[in-house]
Amino acid sequence: MNLPILIVEDDPCLREAICDTLELSNREFHAVDGGKAALKILSEVAFSIVISDVRMMPMDGLTLLKKIREKLPHLPVVLMTAYAEVDKAVEAMKSGACEFLLKPFEPKSLLDIIKKYELQNFQIGGNNVNIVDISPVSKNMFAMALRVAQTDATVLLTGESGTGKEVVAKFIHQNSNRSDKPFVAINCAAIPENLLEATLFGYEKGAFTGANTASPGKFEQAQDGTLLLDEITEMPLNLQSKLLRILQEKEVERLGGKKTIELNVRVIATSNRDMLEAVKQGIFREDLYYRLNVFPIKIPALRERKEDIVTIAKQLLAKHSEQFHRKGMALSEAAQQALINYDWKGNVRELENVIQRALILSTNNTIEAENLNLPTNSKNKK
Fold first, then answer.
1. What are the tens digits of pLDDT across the range 37-52?
2. Which pLDDT score, from 0 to 100, does residue 99 have?
3. Do 49 and 76 meet the contact criterion of CB atoms below 8 Å apart?
């Protein structure tokens, strides 16, 4: 099942024709006659895409587009326009329109564009998830990730520890044209400073004591695929300057080497810090920040998307039930409510620990609230 489509058209005949096309293709949709009505329903319902006419009164399509961008910056918006309105098309592109439909258009052209931007079933961490099963904030975040996945743009994922930034990075890779190529991850905080440079960039034999053979770095290993630079703000400043040069030149030189290796790598970086604050403190280069911040995505904390908690908990339960040889396990209603009420300071990582602990403590096929063993002094939200 998809999210519905919003049609904004003040011409009743064209609006009816578009609705007929969507109805025949079994698409769920809402149709309104102007910008004011569109903004009202957008505040009440989550949509997968907006199809709007440009020439409308009193609010035209360009004004509507700008207002949508203010409140829902990553919602796809397609504008219908006449061929003669090229100047408006240029202005709309600058304002963030995704596509244009030149009137008159065939039904297939409309359906092809809708299909391009629809977010339907997808994989999160190896589990199939339906778009209707997750919170509005997550729908917006994954819709954004899906859109950037179609490009080679550098992505910066930020959010608290344990929110699942690597899961989103893998989602972007899996939905890109690089999905059949390597996905390589390196945690910049987990590798000692004296080894991080060699690990990232590779080295030739004899480059340093112990370098008995040549070794490709993570950039080379990710050739034609995706490289995840996890916790990028923990990278030492001297390496940040070298990383910046590699991102700019799209080539790497191994330690001890004399030849450059051209790179075709999509870079995704993550951080659990406030990166602008890290720049102000002088621990992260401003020029590198702007090089990485081409397409930023903030991963919301679990407490900001309460509707996702039970869905994620069930996924984790299915995953670990098999590992613990406890297939067929379920969460009681009381356990589900306890999970929703809990303030997850450790986010998804903490939730996973709780589910594993509950599997050990439960004595039958149903996990009860007491099996979760949640701290009683947490700030539960009733």
1. 999 998 887 788 899 9
2. 79
3. yes
Across 34-82, where does the E strand assignment appear?
49-53, 77-82
Which residues on neighbouring strands pair with residue 292, listed in sequence order? none
**Cβ contacts of residue 292 below 8 Å, gap of 6+?**
154, 156, 232, 247, 267, 269
Closest CA to 296 of 274, 328, 264: 274
pLDDT in tens, 187-225: 999 999 889 999 999 999 988 888 889 999 999 999 999
Q: How far apart are CA 250 and CA 256, in angstroms?
A: 19
* Residues ≥6 apart with Cβ < 8 Å to 284: 233, 237, 240, 275, 278
If we measure between CA atoms, which residue out of 248, 218, 243, 247 comes closest to residue 232?
A: 243
Where do the DSSP E strands lie in 33-172? Answer: 49-53, 77-82, 99-103, 122-124, 127-129, 155-158
- On the question of pLDDT at 169 being above 90, the answer is yes
With a CB cutoff of 8 Å and minimum separation 6, the contacts of 179 are: 173
Q: If we measure between CA atoms, which residue out of 257, 225, 254 comes closest to residue 242?
A: 254
pTM of the model: 0.70
CA distances from 273 to 127, 142, 158, 212, 283 (A): 28, 21, 7, 37, 11
Q: State residue 100's pLDDT score.
A: 82
CA–CA distance, 100 with 82 (Å, rounded to integer): 10
Question: Of 89-98, 139-148, 269-278, 355-364, which range is least confident?
Answer: 89-98
User: What is the mean pLDDT of the segment spanning 324-348?
Assistant: 93
